[in-house]
Amino acid sequence: MLRQLAISCLVAALALPMTARTRPHYGGRLRVEIEGEPWQRPNGLARRLVLDGLTSMDAKGIVQPALAVEWKSENDSHRWEFRLRTDVHFHDASPLTSVAVVTALNADCSANCPWTAIQAVGASVVFTSDSPMPNLPALLASDEYLIAADAGGNIGTGPFQLSGFSNGVLALTANESCWQGRPFLDAIEIHMHRSIRDQWLDLGVGRADLVEVPAEQLRAAREQRLTVLQSQAVTLLALSVSNSGALANPDLRWAIALAIDRRSLFDVIFQKQGEVTASLLPASLTGYSFLFSVERDLNKSHEKHGGFTPPLLTMTAESGNAMQLAAQRMALNLHEAGFNVQVVAAGGARPGDLALRCLTLASNQPQAALEASLRDAGVQAPVLEQTPANLFGVERDFLQNHTLIPLLFLPRAYAIGGRVRDLQLRSDGTPLLANASLQDAP
Questions:
Q1: pLDDT bracket for residue 19 (50, 70, 90)
Q2: Using H for helix, E for strand and C for coil, what is the string for 216-266?
Q3: Region 249-272: what's the mean pLDDT?
Q4: 45 vs 230: CA distance, rounded Å
Q5: Among residues 423, 361, 413, 346, which one has the least CA distance to residue 143?
Q6: Domain 54-145, CATH
Q7: Which helix (H) or strand (E) holds 31?
Q8: What is the DSSP letter of 96?
Q9: pLDDT value of residue 126
Q10: Quick check: 213 and 34 in contact, CB under 8 A?
Q11: 51-55, 93-97, 198-202, 231-235, range with the lowest pLDDT
Q12: How far apart are CA 368 and CA 138, in angstroms?
């Protein structure tokens, strides 16, 4: 009996230092490096650190209270009331009020909103619409509807606040009075416009704690033994097709969709990461994506083309080497189908006839995710039912227009240094830096 007690005490004593080592520490400065801009939309890293929404998505994609503590719908989801959290202040010390929320949402969403009208009613924000809004709580958790106190979107209620910007480095410091509680980190530095090569070099020598891993370089990251956090396939690579000018002809848009070799993009450029798709939602959410054919059919493309020679078409692509390579390969695919396509820089005098885009899967709830994807494509079409048959019908009706051609679903990934602890990714693949800590923090 005494021997067993002694062994138990020894085990407990040995466990204490281990627990102390793994317990999160307050303090420290986390260095993050990215290729793009921290304020870019959607999903710029700084936005989620500085700003909050009325609702949020947890790591499992479940809608959670944020600036709103509760909500209810009336009139068959034509009216929603969100009651705000009390005693919340923006970083400039101004109070969070229903009027401030309405002002922010009106500034961010002047067109193509899920609602028809929004108004402040006491401590609540009320949304009304001519159409039902069954997915509004999930939609409000997206990056598009984060709440800022200023037109620049730099003053929020989030766990970190802007403290400086100099020489391409955005400095954020902990919000001591954050309604969620103080974050573990004292500060975060976001170094922008850093190439992936430089990011990985800095991570290797300890000058960076968190860097990006593009989907096409996931294999290389593992070969270099980087510690990688990878999301599910949450980014839809899609080709947006104009429905004006020569491409107002639906058969020409169909011919373009048939001519693209998705499997070549998947195998060669994106190194077999993610999944090939012709659907707006991944197979894991619906189970029916296989009903949309992903196979190239050059003969049928020529048939739909009908011998008509359209004028020179232009294609733009979002920044990144892989995106440019994908655009060039698709231009060759289309040349084989009788189209003359030139890849040009984005942001020119007029938008391209074709645009290679990345769309973020806003939710892992199929109904809300489909509605958000349609809104990204400029279609105001609330998805009213979650049955597979209804979701499939909504997708099919939209995709038959061939104004948006899904190509691949890709994961998001980041590599972290050895001192980073407790870092997780949201359901949309963005890192939950507010919950992270540093092992060597004082």
A1: very low
A2: HHHHHHHHCCCEEEEEEEEEEEEEEECCCHHHHCHHHHHHHHHHCCHHHHH
A3: 95
A4: 16
A5: 361
A6: 3.90.76.10
A7: strand 29-33
A8: P
A9: 98
A10: no
A11: 231-235
A12: 6
